[in-house]
């Protein structure tokens, strides 16, 4: 459903421009120069994995990356037939579920590797910790790597090896170092060379030859800026005005009475709050667009409602206010909230309607 003419009963919604998503995917593909493994975890960063994957099929990706077995199972229920790589570490108890879902696990410890190899010869990927210290076999633990290598020597399902960059956007040389660690660690395991991949959005855009065999774009696809690269905006976030109050100078707004009007003004209450993905961090810091004008969020953001100072603008109940888009970028709003674009997108609540502009090519 598209929100070009949203029904008057819609209180809060996001609009996802799938053509813009494809534009970003194609731009990333040209820069990375290798097949894509788009990351669609967390319901495609909150935008709707079913619709996002349907659009991304037009760029012919190698497969899709998710975080959990449940997400892999959902993609299969949606009819996805391409490879699905689970990026979070495999637990031995999940082996049967991965096989049932025909999902590739990421294996980063000996117990999980033993469980997988005892059960199957199906494809899997090895995760190497090259500096993030979050998961995977440590690149400098010689004993652990020797034990891993002995098991991999006769493992026909060993399809890929990967790592995650920790600072490719802010410290590109660190990504070059991590990439070298990945390649050297895998090369030391013997002549068999699986697919190597490390390039997240920042790594794929870094121009440092970090593409490997697959690139794993995430936030860039969804319109989040990466370093100096600014993709086409994909998401706009809207809510309706449901109440108006004319205040006197000295009147206070919202819980805790943390904001006081310095002049006579009009407060518009919009039908969206922190349960819908408006962070508390936007209290007194965020801005929205109303009647084409930037207006500040005032008073404490509530669970279901947010108050906006619209001054003397001619606003009526039912008017549309834009929280992301129309002059308030995703990254600017995230910065105002003291967070990052990933957090803002994935925090958009289930009550918020998702609507889509279909791709044209």
Task: Spell out the blueprint of helices and strands.
Elements: E1 12-17, H1 18-32, H2 41-45, H3 49-56, E2 64-66, H4 69-77, E3 84-89, H5 95-100, E4 104-107, H6 110-119, E5 124-129, E6 137-138, H7 142-152, E7 158-162, H8 172-187, E8 195-199, H9 201-205, E9 214-215, E10 235-247, E11 252-253, E12 259-260, E13 265-270, E14 287-290, E15 293-296, E16 306-311, E17 320-324, H10 330-336, H11 341-346, E18 353-357
Helix pairs in contact: 1-3, 6-7
Summarize the structure in short:
The protein is α/β, with parallel strands linked by helices and 361 residues long.
Task: Explain this structure.
- The protein has 361 residues and is of the alpha/beta class.
- It is 27% helix and 24% strand.
- It contains eleven helices and 18 strands.
- It has helices spanning 18-32, 41-45, 49-56, 69-77, 95-100, 110-119, 142-152, 172-187, 201-205, 330-336, 341-346; strands spanning 12-17, 64-66, 84-89, 104-107, 124-129, 137-138, 158-162, 195-199, 214-215, 235-247, 252-253, 259-260, 265-270, 287-290, 293-296, 306-311, 320-324, 353-357.
- The strands form three sheets. Strands 1, 10, 13, 14, 15, 16, 17 and 18 form an eight-stranded mixed beta sheet that branches. Strands 2, 3, 4, 5, 6, 7, 8 and 9 form an eight-stranded parallel beta sheet that branches. Strands 11-12 form a two-stranded antiparallel ribbon.
- Strand 4 (104-107), helix 6 and strand 5 form a beta-alpha-beta unit.
- The longest helix has 16 residues, at 172-187.
- The chain is elongated.
